[in-house]
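Moderator note: this is an archived Q&A kept for reference. The question asked for a predicted structure of one protein chain; the sequence and the answer are reproduced below.
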Amino acid sequence: MANMRELRDRIKSVNSTKKITKAQELIATSQISKAQARVEAAQPFADQITAILTDLASASSVQHRMLNEPEDATRSAVLVVTSDRGMCGGYNHNVLKEAAELIAFLEEAGREVDIYVLGNKGIVYYTFREVELAGSWHGHSQKPDYQEARPAFQLLSAAFAAGGEATFDASEYLGSDYSGDTTRKGVDEVHIVYTQFKSMLTQTPRARRLAPIETRVEVEELDLGEDMLDTSKTDFKPEVTFEPDADTLLDNLLPRYMSTRAFASLLESAASESAARRTAMKSATDNATELVEGLSREANQARQAQITQEISEIVGGAGALAASAGSD
C-alpha cells in the first residue's frame, strides 16, 4: 500500500487535472449552442444553392463540368477538415480515418490525389507521415470566419476550373507568407471530408463530393387511380431561360457554390468539435472524480492502519511496562 504522502500528492495532482477538464467542459458547452445556431443559419443557403445546381444537372441538357459526371478523371482533390486543438476525444482520428478510406478508394480507381487540410491536427498528422500537402490552413476550426477561410475555397474552385490536365498559379490563395512553389495542378473532382453535426451526442465523419455536383434523379410513381385526373396535384416545372447563357451562369456559380457548401461543412465541423470536446472532457472529469474517491478511500485505509498500528504499539508498550514493574 502506498504511503500517505504519495497518496496525498496523487489526489492533489488529479484534482488539479480535474479543474482543467471541468473548465474545458464548461467552455465547450457554452460554445455548442452558438456553433449550432451558426450551422442552422447557414444550412438553408447551402441547401438552396445545392438544390438549384442539382435540379439543373438532373433536368437540363446543359453540358458543363460542374454538372456532368467526370469521364476518365485522372486527379482528385480532397479537403480534410480537422481541429486546431486537441482534447476532443476521437474527433480527429475519426475524420482522418474517413479521409484515408476515401483517398484509398480514389487511388484504387486510378486517380492521383491532392490533399488539402484545414486544421493544425491534420497538418501535423500528414507532415509526420511525410505526405505532401497541396494546401494547408489553420486557425479556422473553433470559430470559422468566412472571409478568412475563403482563400481555401477559392483555391479548390480554381483547381477544379483548371481541369485535371492543366496547371495554374495559386499564389493569391496561399498567402503572402508562403515561400514555396505556387504552381498547382488542376483536378477533375473535389471532395471534402468533415464531421457532420447531428446532435450533442452524435457526430459522424462524412466524405462528400463537392464538384462535379452529385446529381439527384427523382422517380415519380405513376398512379393509375382517380388522382390522375386531379391536375392540382401535378407538379409542372417551368422551362428556365438563362440570362446570360447557362455556361456563364455556371462559371460564376461554381466558386460561390464551392465556398457556400464548404463553409457550411466547416461550421458543422466546428459544432462537432465542441460537442466532441464536451463529451471527452465530461468523461475525463467523471473519471477524475472516481479516481479521487478511490485514492481517498485508500488514503483513509492507510491512515486507519497507521493509527491501529500506533495504538497496538502503545498498548504493547504499556503491557511491557506493567509486566516489568510487576517483576520488580
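Archived answer notes: The two ends are 42 Å apart (CA to CA).
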